[in-house]
Amino acid sequence: SYTCCKLRQEAKIKEAIQAGEAFLNRFADTAFADNTYMHYGRVSELRPDAWRNVEWAYRSLEELLPDSDLADDACWKLGNLYVTDRQHAEAIATFEYLVKKWPASIWAPSALHLLLHEYSATNQERNTLDVLNELAYKYPKSEYCPESLYDVAKRYKEVEDYRSAINALRDLQRDFPYSDLLDDAQMCVAECMRLSGNLQGALDAYNDLIHNWYGSSLTNQAMREANNLMKQIHGGAGRTAGALYDPLAWDPQKEADELWN
């Protein structure tokens, strides 16, 4: 019975595609054309052999009817089609066009997010950083913003632009106080300060992580780094022995209780 239903369904899909083609051939300039292009594309997606039909439908809608409320939807679906088919150049061009043509579209942040992956896949580092900045600061309410700020900081860190990295991390900590990336951001702040030669600033940043992010998986690493910095700053382990952290004896709950009581 399933086979019969499947055959009937495939017949209906074929009929729907033919009906869409017939309508668009006669009424492509009517008010119903955009909905018909979109419906034609969606129905064609149900057939694995109709890839070119899908591409034609979405491309026609975005190019011939750019003022339609569905034009950005068509562009978004077309870009995803290229991503699925691993056509990197086409996906990049489509998402770039979407963001430029419809910057207020609900799909713009998601398009930028996918652009990141496409640029990374094609080793376009400069474009990757530009898109990260655009996503982080042009779409601050996007779900991708905290992650983008963190990625921006890491890339600035890689090119030794530590000031810009720290600025992005501070923006993340200020604007997204409930983000899961806060302790990672604080660790990165400390690392940037250490690498830039600001040892005391780095030590303060590690201490901040240790005492204010209880239970963080980064606490032990921060303790080791803080111990090394105290030795460097104060000239050897002998002068700092009493101040060094002991990760094995560290009790984050006790630290929290002492702070709040």
Characterize the structure shown.
The chain is mainly alpha-helical and 261 residues long. 72% of the residues lie in helices and 0% in strands. It is built from 13 helices and no strands. α5 packs antiparallel against α6 and α7 (125-138) packs antiparallel against α8.
TL;DR of this structure?
This protein is an all-alpha fold and 261 residues long. Helices cover 72% and strands 0% of the residues. 33% of the residues are buried.
Question: What labels describe this entry?
Answer:
single chain, elongated, mainly alpha, 261 residues
Largest sheet geometry? none
DSSP helical segment count: 13
Radius of gyration (CA) equals: 27 Å
Mean pLDDT: 84
Please identify the structural class as seen in this structure. Answer: mainly alpha
Order of helices and strands: HHHHHHHHHHHHH
Report the helical percentage: over 70%
Task: Give the CA-CA distance, first to last residue.
Answer: 71 Å
Low-confidence residue ranges: 1-7
> Which word captures the global form?
elongated
Q: Count the strands?
A: 0
Strand content: under 5%
